[in-house]
Amino acid sequence: MESTDQSINTSSSGNAVSRFLDRLYGGIKMNWPAVIIMAVVSAAITAVFLLVPVFKDTSFERMGIDFEAWFLPAILIMPNCKSPLDSAVKTFVFFLVSQPLIYLIQVPFSDMGWGLFGYYKYWFIWTLLTFPMAFIGWFLRKRGWISLLIISPVIVFLSAVGVGAFIDTYYEPPYLLVTGLFCMLQAAVYILTFTVNKWQRLAALAAVIVTAVIVIVRNGSVEISGQSFLPEGYSYSENAVITVADPDIAEVSFNDPAEGFVYVNGRKYGSTTFTVTDGGKEQRFSLEIYRENGHSQLEIKAE
Hints:
The protein has 303 residues and is of the alpha+beta class. Helix content is 53%, strand content 17%. It has a 4-stranded antiparallel β-sheet, with no helix packed on it. It has a 3-stranded antiparallel β-sheet with strand order 1-4-3, with no helix packed on it.
């Protein structure tokens, strides 16, 4: 009897979540005041994240730089409109108001002043593209394979960004932890909302898993190579030879020994040393390859 009650409670809980999501993405009256208020509030919050130093190089600063946060209001607007054209116009106006307003709020506080609007060109192009995308996005109301097909690119994109953010967090905790959680939660909500049976959900889950595997494989390798002067102005003859203690981490070779100019090809994160032998003289250097702000970096120091 207890297991039956538990089953009923679980089912009721599941139905409550489903009803909530159905109302959130299709049962809200998306009128013009709501669209404008959302645009202004989103712009103000984003501007604060971009202006306040404590948010620099965090998930919050990304809101004004990358796409993932902007799917949230866009996909909230689309299925709550009356028609495909209504969806296209309101989504377009939302971005037409919010994006330049972000820059406008920053102008008095930035050394760039009105020059900040040079970055708006990029967002204006995407603002124009929201019109046809939101026209199609209205059909998210048609729950099933159609809505899954429409939302799939968003789910794949959010999964890629989310897994990438978790990888960055692994190397630099808690760096982009909020971005990772935010993106994966969005993807999960869209899967639950815009599918109606287990086969559609399994298809969406498969897309998430494949995306995650691709991102993990690509991020597992170091992608860094470049040229650098050796520190402290060291200069060598044409006969100088470089020996790396751990060639699995990196290869180092001379481009111009006289100028102490070397080429480094990084292979994995870690620290090693390399020795420059020039006749009877030896000089040892430390080499560190690490991840910072989501990018591979290298540092050479004389020992």
